[in-house]
Amino acid sequence: MSQAGKSSKKRIYLNAFDACTVGHTCPGQWRNPADHSSDKRNLDYWLETAKILEKGKFLSYFLADTVGGFDVYNGSRDPAIKIASEFPVTDPFVPISAMAAVTKSLGFGVTASTSYERPFLLARRFSTLDHFTKGRIGWNIVTSWNKSSALAMGLTDIIPHDERYAAADELMDVLYQLVSQQYRLLGRELTCCRLWELSISDDAVVKDKASETYIDPSKVRTIKHQGKYHQLESPFIVDPSPQRTPFLFQAGTSPAGSAFAAKHAEAIFVAGHVPGTLAPKIAKIRQLAADRGRDPQSLKFFQCLTLILGKTDEDAQTKLAEIKKYQSIEGGLVIFSAFTGIDLSKYELDEEIKPEDSKSSAIIQSAFSNLFNEEQGTGKWTPRRAAEELSIGGNGAVLVGSPQTVADGLERWVAEADVDGFNLSPVLQPQSWNDIVELLVPELQSRGIYWDEYNAPGGTLRENAQGKGNSRLRTDHFGHSYTYNRG
Amino acid sequence: MSQAGKSSKKRIYLNAFDACTVGHTCPGQWRNPADHSSDKRNLDYWLETAKILEKGKFLSYFLADTVGGFDVYNGSRDPAIKIASEFPVTDPFVPISAMAAVTKSLGFGVTASTSYERPFLLARRFSTLDHFTKGRIGWNIVTSWNKSSALAMGLTDIIPHDERYAAADELMDVLYQLVSQQYRLLGRELTCCRLWELSISDDAVVKDKASETYIDPSKVRTIKHQGKYHQLESPFIVDPSPQRTPFLFQAGTSPAGSAFAAKHAEAIFVAGHVPGTLAPKIAKIRQLAADRGRDPQSLKFFQCLTLILGKTDEDAQTKLAEIKKYQSIEGGLVIFSAFTGIDLSKYELDEEIKPEDSKSSAIIQSAFSNLFNEEQGTGKWTPRRAAEELSIGGNGAVLVGSPQTVADGLERWVAEADVDGFNLSPVLQPQSWNDIVELLVPELQSRGIYWDEYNAPGGTLRENAQGKGNSRLRTDHFGHSYTYNRG
């Protein structure tokens, strides 16, 4: 293919989606001799993985997080603990600096909840990482509201000690959660944003020996925030890092999530099962962003996918058959129950679940229709079928085949849903990463839809996502209005 | 000297005391061309330092922390910001995994406040680090009560929203701080301790493929804690790490601090200016520990010292003269004011401060008598003299001389104050570390008072401090009563 032909196609990004846990989206594979995901207690595992991903020129290595444990299935955490579904989970911030030391261009994304971390400490941790990675850190902004994690965090932190007011406050808290989760997100995120963007001028660090001035205090602002749950009065404590605000990831296409994404997110994780259902959601968010004056193409959408690659289609199917031997049906039930809030232990494995029989029919209908769509045929909705789907790749779609087959599939997602790249989950670790790097990446490059080199080798995550020179929030981004040096 | 002669002497430990800031205990030295402490935004700085310290077989690399900024002097943060005294400060947790990846035996200590971190997240971060370092992590337990850091953290988190109760609650909070700081410490620390020691059995991770059991849920306990400020109901989420509870550091010899140390600390940082005044304090804490049934010699006391080493005494004095050219008097004033709460800007630099003239005479008397003692002569107490003392080495003592002279000084501290080692602060970074490793360590080894090799090369921090095989809390330690597998 000619260079001209190459450049006419939309270039895609690859992102690696992982978690500091054993199975993540493929419960049960720890029993597969080819899987080493239980080596994650060993720092060497992370160093090796980061090197593989940089070799494949992944945009970033993204680590999900959860603290509460899955406890809907059978009304207990025990099934999740037994099969190691999101348990144990280590701190996703911890391995980053070690991986940064053995890479130059790979970005890193970390999930952190705005509900449980103090803005000042969270902002400091990200800024420290942004310095140490030379601008390669991203933040996946989430709220955590499941009861188990709230109990782990000590939710009563924000409830008055006086017992008489406890009940009223809990109600207020729940209402707040329901009607103003988005506001809450904004309040927290903006506090961090102010610390990152507004507190210290880019030229504050002067290191003037004659006047014994390391930082010019006139270029340091105290940030005051008087919020409902949070107050803060302090200058930020870290001098401006390469990106200032970490590259902002966000997941979800709910109405509240879409509005948030259109305003704040620079990269959005989406999870459709077929391109057709996803396309209007992405178009909607791009339109909302455009309505705010943002370049809609500056928002990068990553479809969540699990790839099972072989040298040939037959080879890939053989791999899939081997993987199926180890998939955990119980794990699928645990995940489905956690995602939907419906305890599947109350059904027989092969019992048909009729949405209209359920009090939560809308939730079930939505969950199943996401899994079983017109392309796959509807058939009977049973716990076993849901579990089989969810125990390989979680709630993301799965592509199986040769590099050519899988590349065709990716091109279809780009053409039909207007995604910008893929958030890829591994089945076997680190083998899945090696398969992508060795089999798929060369195929994508030969089609001209994948870079031969990072936008900015040795540069920042934002530059690699938005183009060389774009280390800071774009001028059309909401957060830019907080920039110290905006004038 | 014979091996028998060698073994009859008490062997000392060296600990490196640093902070993620520019000057730390030697404000102004960033202007000295020999100092590279302003390179701390670069990960390479940390990797190089860790390698130097491991070469010198330091027990651990210890990182202090502060979040609020020094703001007593002149009633403003500006002087501290200008001279870079504890500003900027990055997150001390972040560089650890990178340093762990390039070392095998060096331990790491991190300061974290029990006041501002959620026990569950703090416990998870330490356990993750304990896994990734293979058991080389320690925790310096502190409370943070200065107003500036409280404002940065949003102190009102624990104040009822209802304004009518705000005043009453603030008073209660202050009283709580004054009368039960120790209780508060215990409450928080014990929550972490329960998560670390009591939640998951050592044999919980079974990885039994046949029964699809990664973790045996019957060996995972839910921890319930109903405290005044914190509640928690959750199992811990990280499988047992090599040390479970990180090695516990603590600083301070106040009555409350001593009682805490006697119960909890495994290593205690002390800062006397002469051995004679320190000796009874150490003896007291060892006695308190013995009263609790602990082996008093298992508590390791580290005297804070700053060393200025030359090949000869004359060489060292030349180095000191060079260092004095860059010491920041303003920095000393800022530090003294922050430590004592007395704003020295209200005095002329050479004005005599008579404690009896001050409303805070007891604090001033104590602060000055710590600096100027019978060995140094009392003389006039002036701001300049205090600042000169504090701007080289902070409030720790300073030893200047050849390796022989300094080693003699260390031996005197061991003999007279019964310390177990030294918490050494650098003047110039990383040059001070190289001086210690290349000049002092060989002298200490030749005297038989320093190890030729770690107790447990490649082992845990606790093993290196307490002897090979001792990775877990000792059986005579209070925290051992929480151990899951105690029976």
Task: Give a written overview of the molecule.
- The first copy, chain A, is α/β, with parallel strands linked by helices and 487 residues long.
- Chain A contains 17 helices and 13 strands.
- In chain A, the strands form three sheets. The first copy, chain A, has an eight-stranded parallel barrel, surrounded by five helices.
- In chain A, helix 5 packs across helix 8.
- Chain A starts with a helix and ends in a 21-residue tail after the last helix.
- The model of chain A is unreliable at 1-7 and 155-187 (pLDDT under 50).
Low-confidence stretches of chain A: 1-7, 155-187
Please tell me how large the radius of gyration of chain A is. 23 Å
* Spatial ordering of strands, largest sheet of chain A: 1-2-3-4-9-10-11-13
* Percent in strands of chain A: 5-15%
Mean pLDDT of chain A: 83
Give the N-to-C terminal Cα separation of chain A: 48 Å
Number of helices of chain A: 17
Structural class of chain A: alpha/beta
Family (chains A, B): Belongs to the NtaA/SnaA/DszA monooxygenase family.
Pfam family, one (chains A, B): Bac_luciferase
GO molecular function (chains A, B): monooxygenase activity; oxidoreductase activity, acting on paired donors, with incorporation or reduction of molecular oxygen
Organism (chains A, B): Clonostachys chloroleuca
